[in-house]
Design goal:
This protein has helices spanning 2-13, 18-26, 33-40, 68-85, 93-107, 127-135, 149-158, 167-172, and strands spanning 117-121, 141-146, 176-180, 195-198. With 199 residues, the protein is of the alpha/beta class.
Length: 199
Amino acid sequence: KKAQQTMKDTAALGGIDWDEEVATLEQLGGWDETALKSVTGRADWTPDQLPDYFKQKFHAYGNGNLCWEAAKEQMVAGKAVGVRNFPMYGAGGEDHMRGRFEETIQRMGAFVEEGGTIIDMGCGTGTSTRRLATAFPDAQEVIGVDLSPYFVAVAQRLAGTQGILSAEEQEACSRVRYVWADATSSGLPDGSASLVTLS
């Protein structure tokens, strides 16, 4: 829990209330087995079916990314990372950090034709996926892929909420969908993407 407290303290330096942001997600409710089954499509799903490396303790979570706590804290943790890496931007640090990534891939030649598809591997709860949809408005579809069904459930739920996402992100949701899959075997068709990112 020391790592988690460090992240909370860092977020506070940028004026971000960690507990309040998590509580806002908690209030949406529905964080249960039904939500997981809707993501996995399997009533018999268990974490035992995932690769061993993904079931390890990670950061402050005994179950790594295979728990609701990690999933509900992922968005605010991203904001804390932004504050840590770009303290001069305060609460806008994450936006600055992600914006530099988007600018860099475009400067390097990333292009998505009208009607094209973007695949965002390791999408977490969808922040990077929604931002890619905004950065590449010609993309018809942006597909976020993550191996944690908890993270995918949160990403899917956020798409239908008001007051949590920015107006730009909310608008981008109409072209975004999320897939629970291993990046090494996503089940997506070969050659179907104009751009693939790995967060």
